[in-house]
Design a protein that fits this description.
The chain has 65 residues and is an alpha+beta fold. The chain has three helices and three strands, in the order H-E-H-H-E-E. A hairpin with a 3-residue loop joins strand 2 and strand 3.
Amino acid sequence: MLPRDSAILEALRQKGSRVLTFRQLAKKLGVREADEEALRESLEALERAGEIARIRGEQYSSIDL
């Protein structure tokens, strides 16, 4: 099962988790390998919405306004 956008944002906002690689984020959220492409699509949608930033390839960070 894929995590909701709110769970992705929470994982990125947790203390000590300012920047996570795709693999770290998938592991933290318990995403199965079969669901990784769907997670990438969710991350891209959050990036387009301005909720997160992609940094150096597959590293992600929340954008705190």
